[in-house]
Amino acid sequence: MASVVQICNMALSHIGADARVSSISPPDGSVEAGLCATFYDLARTEMLEPGNWAFALKRTALAQVTNPSTVWAYAYAKPADCMRALRILRPSIAVTVFTQDLVLEPHTDDRDSAPFDVEGEVILTNEPDAVLVYCRDLTDSTKFPASFTSALSYLLASYLAGPIVKGNEGVRLGDGMRQRAQSMADLSAAASANASSTDTLPQPTLLAVRA
């Protein structure tokens, strides 16, 4: 899959720039590398945050903290790499076939979320021993599917167009790149949804309101 430098060079190609970068961390000294270093992480997190991307999902048992709420029974620390909390897994209860005795099972129904709220860096819920499914801040670009990489390159291009092309043409080109990023994100979202049997879909359309 693509490296960060490859994604940056894809973005530069989208806006018709002849220059290519060899490094953005640290920048290679070119104006283009400096701009890519400024905008790459912003574009990456903007693309990741709205969605329930299968490749960026993670689950973890939460660490309990002091509860500031009088409404919720439990408080947990939000994981450091959590961009968007999606579900608190609700423990399942199974019934044995022969005895009909209730047996607590260790598995959970991943499609069913217990109610929860997020206040700053604290997650509040009524679930003991809560397990969170969330969209993580994934920085390894080699883990991005091709369709997501393409969408990200167009979103990065939307940020680069103004300072590189400049003027009204740069604004127009940036708007066009953002629209293309939206279209590519929708395709990537569909591919991610098709890879899962759940009904929870990514929500990249939030990009449209961040222009």
Descriptive overview:
This protein is an alpha+beta fold and 211 residues long. It has helices at 4-14, 31-48, 146-165, 167-194, and strands at 57-61, 74-77, 82-95, 102-114, 116-119, 122-125, 131-136. The strands form 2 sheets. A 4-stranded antiparallel sheet has the order 1-7-3-4, with no helix packed on it. Strands 2-6-5 form a 3-stranded antiparallel sheet, with no helix packed on it. Strand 3 (82-95) and strand 4 (102-114) form a beta hairpin. The radius of gyration is 21 Å and the shape is elongated. 33% of the residues are buried.
Short key terms for the protein model shown above:
alpha+beta, 4-stranded antiparallel beta sheet, 3-stranded antiparallel beta sheet, 211 residues, 4 helices, 36% helix
Q: Specify Rg, calculated over alpha carbons.
A: 21 Å
Question: How much of the residues is beta strand, in percent?
Answer: 15-25%
Largest sheet: 4 strands, antiparallel
Please, how many helices?
4
Order of SSEs, N→C? HHEEEEEEEHH
Shape: elongated
- Average pLDDT number: 85
> What percent of residues adopt helix (DSSP H or I)?
25-40%
Unreliable spans: 93-108
Derived structural class: alpha+beta
Secondary structure: number of strands: 7
